[in-house]
Specification:
Length: 87
């Protein structure tokens, strides 16, 4: 069975949360990314487009692993802070 942090991260638990609105820095970075992605996908060579799509897939897998780790570490830190309050 998954531990509670894995369950929470995977969406198996449903805590109340308020979605965060992207800020201007995020919006600007996302726009630059979309422009660069579109330019690269316009490449007429199908092999380079295929490699770019493979790169995207592998990058998403890496980001997912990093996000899950950061999520768990944040909860552990929160638990440690809460425990410190009761000392």
């Amino acid at each position: 069975m998954d531990n509670i942090l894995d369950q929470l991260y995977a969406g198996k638990l449903f805590p109340f949360e308020v979605p965060r609105s992207p800020d201007q820095e995020y919006e600007s970075a996302a726009e630059r990314f979309e422009l660069a992605w579109a330019a690269l996908m316009d490449d007429p060579d199908p092999e380079r487009r295929r490699l770019l799509l493979q790169l995207e897939k592998e990058h998403e897998a890496l980001l997912s692993l990093l996000e899950q780790s950061a999520f768990a570490q944040g909860f552990r830190l929160g638990g440690q802070l809460a425990a410190e309050v009761f000392r």
